[in-house]
Amino acid sequence: MRVSDRFAFFWSEFSGSLGDLGLFIPLVVAMSSVGSLDLGTILIAAGVMNVATGWFFRQPIPVQPMKAIAAVAITEGLAKGELMASGIVMGAILLAFGLTGTIGAIDRWIPRPLVRGIQLGVGLKLAAKGIGWVYELPFWSWDGICIAILAALLMLWMAASSKPGLILLFCAGFILILLEDSKAFEGIGLTISSFHFGWPAASDWQAGLLRGAVPQLPLTVLNSVVAVCALSGDYFPGRGISPKRMAVSVGLMNLVCSPSL
């Protein structure tokens, strides 16, 4: 069955767009806290790239964060210039892989168990850091209990009725914040984020390459390129995205966005 390439804007589409926020927002907030990154700039860049990929590919392609780089930045610390350098290096490598057509050969060279091990290691490092932060909070707080019960009920409801419950869960989070602190959003206003383009210093490239790009490369190649293209072919028969096009798009996004960190 061929899926139409026309744009569709329904509640299910809106709900699906929130599906990655559970990973993306904590990573972005944590990296902004430890790396002095501008949160507004990151969110704007991510939003623009999501719109661009949706428009270009006509499919719900995820713009995935560089999880290995994020894990190193959060748990071990990477300076802003080092983060910038790692993103630029990743962009250049992926663009080269795509333009030269070597992405298929890379897929055959890297064992899948190795990538799964990297994914597991990244997940464990992030989980350990999250547990450390949660451990400092009161365990029996009423808001934590309410969130857990509400999230469980909504997930069960979604599974039983195929309804877009993520919208309700997303809105419920803001309501709970207001119930906890009625002045939580008083200082928030509409402002225009200022973009500051820069370039890594000479001393940032080595750490950006060895601590950021090297552990991230196999994860991105198989998880963000090969696996996404395989899913694209499964869900959109006859219109599956080639690894070459995906690698080029990911590379360009890194090269465009990294200097604005």
Write the layout of secondary structure elements.
Blueprint: H1 11-17, H2 21-35, H3 39-57, H4 67-77, H5 80-100, H6 103-109, H7 112-135, H8 142-161, H9 166-180, H10 204-235, H11 243-257
Helix pairs in contact: 2-4, 4-7, 4-10, 5-10, 5-11, 7-10, 8-9, 10-11
Gyration radius over CA: 20 Å
Number of extended strands = 0
Terminal-residue CA separation: 42 Å
Structural class of the helix and strand makeup? mainly alpha
**How much strand content do the residues show?**
under 5%
The shape, in one word, is globular
Number of domains: 1
Oligomer: single chain
Number of helices: 11
Could you explain the architecture of this structure?
The chain has 261 residues and is mostly helical. It has one domain. The chain is 71% helix and 0% strand. The chain is built from eleven helices and no strands. The longest helix is centred in the C-terminal third of the chain and has 32 residues, at 204-235. The radius of gyration is 20 Å and the shape is globular. The N and C termini lie far apart (42 Å).
List keywords for this structure.
261 residues, 11 helices, single chain, mainly alpha
Summarize the structure.
The protein has helices at residues 11-17, 21-35, 39-57, 67-77, 80-100, 103-109, 112-135, 142-161, 166-180, 204-235, 243-257. The protein is mainly alpha-helical and 261 residues long. The N and C termini lie far apart (42 Å).
